[in-house]
Amino acid sequence: MFDNNVFLENTCKNIVEAGNVTGFELKTNITYYRGIPLSMVNDIGVEVDGEKIAREHIVCSVDEVAWFTLDEMETVTSYKWEYGEPLTVRVLKDGGLSNGSHEIALDVVVRTAYIPVPLAGRKVRTVEIA
């Protein structure tokens, strides 16, 4: 239902810190009509060219200041992911994405107070890294 909110267009880029490419990031909006605390994010998955990224290499932030692993997010109630505010998803990978075209898939699964099953969204985009 909210799949078009997943993996916002033109948000995938490599992360450069102190002159080194330390990974890549992309942004997503919530797959629900309201905000939720980060503890209600059930899972986030990233695939690059058909290869699934390990869960421990993914960190997320609602403000790009405080970053949390997916395991840490299970207990984070003080940060809220609001509807219409993108969540930044970073994949920590030395060298990031190589130059050229990549097929990136993003899966977002959240729990809500009113629906007994998690809401899942998936978006696949082809991105160009220069």
Largest sheet, strands/sense/barrel:
5 strands, antiparallel
Could you tell me the CATH topology label.
Immunoglobulin-like
Give the overall silhouette. Answer: globular
Instruction: Please give the share of residues in helix.
Output: under 10%
The CATH architecture assignment turns out to be: Sandwich
Entry keywords:
lyase; 130 residues; lyase activity; CGDB; mainly beta; carbohydrate metabolism; globular; 11 strands; 4-stranded antiparallel sheet; C-deglycosylation enzyme beta subunit; Immunoglobulin-like; 1 helix
Could you please describe the fold and organization of this structure?
It contains one helix and eleven strands; from the N terminus they run βββββββαββββ. The chain starts with 12 loop residues before the first strand and ends with a strand. The chain is mostly beta strands. The strands form three sheets. It has a five-stranded antiparallel β-sheet with strand order 1-2-9-6-7. It has a four-stranded antiparallel β-sheet with strand order 5-4-10-11, with no helix packed on it. A two-stranded antiparallel sheet has the order 3-8. It has one domain (3-129): Immunoglobulin-like (Sandwich), CATH 2.60.40. This is C-deglycosylation enzyme beta subunit. Residues 2-114 form the C-glycoside deglycosidase beta subunit domain. Keywords: Carbohydrate metabolism, Lyase. Belongs to the C-glycoside deglycosidase beta subunit family.
